[in-house]
Design brief:
globular
Length: 151
């Protein structure tokens, strides 16, 4: 299998907590498998260009922030990504509207800043709160990167 052109990295707070990684761990096994397969098969292979090539999965929110969307947690999607469908996925379709906010850095890194399931939190106010949180985390990450580079 060929290496992924993009590497995913979880944003870490100064305390070392990685909120998106923690959120992923709370998903069911099959939800993690489906989302992980989509992140691997789409985002890591195509990167931010996904917003132009397959806009149903990704869009630019401006100022270096992107939204990755997964709404089709199905056996067909997994087949398209070259993954095997899990029996649980075939038996019980998952109602999920995953949103993962990320920032491309350099030409190989995608920083995962915030994520949630819009099926469980459908309000526009909650989405705006998550976008604001992603922007705040991006600003924090960029400031820490600058401090590391300065003498």
């Amino acid at each position: 299998m060929s290496p992924r052109p993009y590497r995913l990295e979880f944003y870490e707070e100064a305390s070392g907590d990685a909120p998106v990684e923690r959120w992923l761990q709370k998903l069911s096994t099959i939800e993690r498998y489906a989302l992980g397969s989509a992140l691997d098969g789409l985002l890591q292979r195509i990167g931010p260009e996904l917003a132009m090539l397959r806009p149903q999965y990704c869009s630019s929110l401006g100022a270096g922030l992107y939204e990755f969307r997964l709404e089709d947690v199905s056996e067909e999607l997994l087949r398209q990504l070259g993954k095997k469908a899990r029996k649980a996925l075939v038996r019980v379709p998952i109602k999920a509207l995953f949103r993962v906010f990320f920032h491309p850095h350099g030409n190989r890194l995608l920083l995962l800043l915030a994520a949630y399931d819009k099926a469980k939190q459908p309000s526009p106010a909650y989405q705006n709160k998550q976008i604001g949180l992603a922007r705040k985390r991006l600003t924090d990450w960029q400031a820490r990167q600058r401090r590391r580079r300065s003498p």
